[in-house]
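Render this sequence as a predicted structure.
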Amino acid sequence: MSKKQWGHGFHNGYKKAKKESSDVYVNNGVKLIENAELICPTIGCESPFLHHFRIEVYDREKEDSWRGRTTIIDNCGVFIRNNDEQSMFGNPSIRRDGIRILFWCEWCEMVSIIEFDQHKGSTCFSLESTTRKYRGE
């Protein structure tokens, strides 16, 4: 990312960074610009200024189990849920382990989620926009 592309958070009182024109590549529905930077999936935005703010890791006890360990890193804190009936709630993978990374966009302020899930020995991923705005959670 060039120095011109570096943005500053809107919630810190800085101006939004200017978006330079770049070629956009689509790979499995995920938009990237030439330096492999993610593009905001919100329709009409296409900003490369995404900031991750929460990571969720789902580790099943065994395949198909609703028990396991969920580790959430959020706001400089770590929360671990161990072996209760709801520890796999939110897991993007139906039967195996999964990872979710939440981002907020400097331009549209919407939250986006990258999900990694496992299916029949393969790891799949997706990037989707949500319908909620980032509120500095």
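Summary. Residues 1-14 have pLDDT under 50 and may be disordered. The chain is about 0% helix and 45% strand.
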